[in-house]
Write a structure and sequence with these properties.
Blueprint lengths: L1 H5 L3 H26 L7 H17 L4 H23 L6 H23 L26 H5 L4 H19 L1 H9 L3 H6 L4 H27 L11 H11 L4 H24 L5 H20 L18
């Protein structure tokens, strides 16, 4: 009975929203890239770079929002590198993405060690604090769960609405979706397919980096290696779960985060079961949900297919 009661507590869903926030940023970023026809397996490394650059900017005395901008810019820079290799040059998106992840994580480690050679424990910063929304935060249940979060969580939800609006209500969004479906048709309209794909990958990578920055500037107050902990790979799965749609991807991120928050609480009330069992629960449930949803998912038809100008 206690295990069931947990599901209906505001604290569980408040934790789920916090856990989902970096996944929302990362999933949106990957969704934009794939909508434009580019698979970005550099997501794990880009999130690590975003986590470090945002935190390090604040550690050096910068404002928190300056750290957010720096993190997004660093993600866009790695996105540009990835896009230049896979769009005009047509290199393997799988191999290049993994290479970007290795480069980004290794470079982050190098800069951290060089910049802080004498540090034995990760330095701390003053992160974003909870920002209750007047009036709404006093609502029963929903006030604690939704309206007492940090500014970056609110930004994550705003990003979902913004990305959905751009993709489905603007000419730019139509062009991005079409370049992932039929790039020849986009070129026939006089739009540069290469520049459009590069821009989409840069924008998506900036959002991925914000997912990493959330970890060091909102969820925690310091940077440590492996803190991304596979969230990038989860985000790639959530894109498929969400059928390449921002709203469904948001639902998938919250669902996974709710599983994660739930297993943490189950560990405290269920005795005699190895904690590893609880740790794998959200992944097992997510795999089952992914299998169910992926069978009906319609992927972008030009995903991972290089395009040369003038080809038909």
């Amino acid at each position: 009975m206690a295990a069931l009661e947990i599901i209906f507590t505001a604290s569980l869903w408040a934790a789920a929203i916090r856990i989902a926030s970096p996944l929302i940023f990362a999933t949106l970023g990957e969704l934009i890239c794939e909508r434009a026809g580019v698979l970005n397996l550099g997501i794990e490394g880009i999130m690590t770079v975003g986590a470090f650059t945002g935190w390090f900017t604040v550690y050096l005395g910068g404002d928190l929002w300056v750290g957010v901008v720096v993190a997004a810019a660093s993600g866009a820079a790695f996105g540009l590198l990835h896009a230049l290799l896979v769009v005009p040059l047509g290199l393997s998106q799988h191999v290049t993405g993994i290479g970007i992840t290795l480069l980004a994580t290794s470079l982050t480690s190098y800069v951290y060690r060089v910049s802080l050679p004498e540090v034995t424990s990760p330095p701390k910063i003053e992160p974003f604090q909870s920002l209750p929304i007047p009036g709404l935060s006093d609502l029963p249940f929903f006030g604690e769960a939704l309206f007492s979060q940090t500014p970056l969580t609110y930004l994550a939800f705003i990003s979902v609405a913004l990305v959905a609006y751009i993709l489905y209500r603007t000419p730019l969004g139509l062009a991005v979706r079409m370049v992932g479906e039929n790039p020849a048709a986009v070129e026939a309209q006089g739009i540069d397919v290469t520049l459009l794909r590069i821009g989409a990958v840069m924008a998506g990578s900036a959002l991925m980096a914000l997912g990493g920055a959330f970890l060091t500037m909102s969820a925690f107050n310091s940077f440590y290696f492996d803190m991304v902990n596979g969230r990038g790979w989860i985000a790639i799965a959530l894109v498929v779960f969400g059928s390449w749609r921002p709203g469904k991807a948001l639902l998938g991120a919250i669902l996974f985060a709710a599983f994660d928050a739930y297993q943490l609480r189950l560990q405290q009330i269920v005795a005699g079961v190895p904690y590893q069992f609880f740790l794998m629960l959200p992944y097992i449930l997510s795999i089952l949900a992914l299998i169910t949803m992926a069978r009906r998912a319609g992927y972008p038809r030009a995903l991972m297919i290089p395009y040369r100008k003038g080809e038909r």
